[in-house]
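note to self: dont lose this again. the chain is below, predicted strucutre after it. 468 aa total, dont forget to put it in the shared folder this time
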Amino acid sequence: MEEVVKKENPLGTEPVGELMMKFAIPSIIAMLVGALYNIVDQLFIGQAVGTNGNAATNIAFPLSTMCISLALMFGVGGASCYNLTLGKGDKKKAPFYIGNSFIMLAVSGLMLCLVTELFLDQLLTLFGAPDEVMPYAQEYVRITAIGFPFLILTTGGGHLMRADGSPGMTMFCSIIGAVINTGLDALFVFGFGWGMAGAAAATIIGQVISAGIVAWYVLFRFRSSRLDRGCFIPRLSFIGHIAAIGLASFFNQIAIMVVQVVMNNLLKYYGGLSKYGESIPLAAAGIIMKVNQIVFSFAIGLGQGGQPIESFNYGARKYGRVRKTFMLAAATAVGIALVAFVFFQTMPRQILALFGDGSEEYFEFGERFFRIVLFFVPLVSLQPVTSTFFTSIGKPVKGIILSLSRQILLFLPLACVLPLFWGIDGTMYAGPVSDVLSTILTIIMWIAEFSLMRKQEAENTLTAKNVM
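---
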């Protein structure tokens, strides 16, 4: 009997709180470090280049979001498939999900890099670059695109390492890249005076080193399963399953990217009709959205930290542990977002000032954008946790519905219609309205899923009694 207990997977036996500490804290740190990649560039560029430089990084941001969407589709999808398969006891099939996920992360990164370099001007125009901002955006993106394969491999590979029970390695890879990026930013931007190009070069050097560590771990140090060469041969059946499970995370990021592009164009157009001009709204909104990424890093990190626990226990039919994991992640995310809400409402000017000087109109717009758009940030923090939860239990369609609800089904129509009546202010008020409506849907869906689990538990108990 003792032999069996020793062989049980700790994901199914250890206290949920301890497991969440083990997996969520490194995940949160990794997500924070990823957010800081963009923020550090913004800080140095804002101080060295000014408002047009800040606007340029905002124009480039949809491409970073596209990288994250591909990384999450194959990273979260591969990790969830792996843990679900292990939870069901199929140890032979599980490693193929890791190998195929790793290959697709590399391939998708190369493809995105190629597309970006070939169609750079068209993409930046689509993203809403004003004439005075375009040269800065071209200089920045032409270099950072080289790092897309490494960024995707680092971000997606972190999920594979976490699925292997090594969240600390995920955190280490992110931290080492961020430290290198920060140090080189200071050297290249201020020391050598390279401006936008220096910030971009610092970014990709950090990404290359992080990706190298991820590749070394997956190829040579993966612990919970043996990964032979056959696991890395692409197979449509495995890739299709990985993509299907990871679609919720993919669509969530794609929805964010679409909103970014539409918002950039709306801010450019209605800003041009206002006293702020085209560039000020773009620069201020870009900074605020990246600062808000810090809050979402906590929420996403908590969701990702719960993923191995939820996936394994759902596969093992230990539904009580699944629910407990989710509720712990959701409550923590809301608590952290409440603290952020206080800062966003009371110190918006001070936060904006960290990213360089600007005109009074710049600070006026930025303060209002902070207070209005991020008013319901505690409610919105529930959505990434819930979306990841549905992906973790192998129900990606529900995750996709949540991912699309706020961004595409609610926010975009409101962002396009409200400015017709209130000008550039309408782009701001679309945020809180869509936040409330999407949160109601989120709560309804998770309560309904919990009811299904309890029903399944009752059926399993009845079946066990009949067998006895």
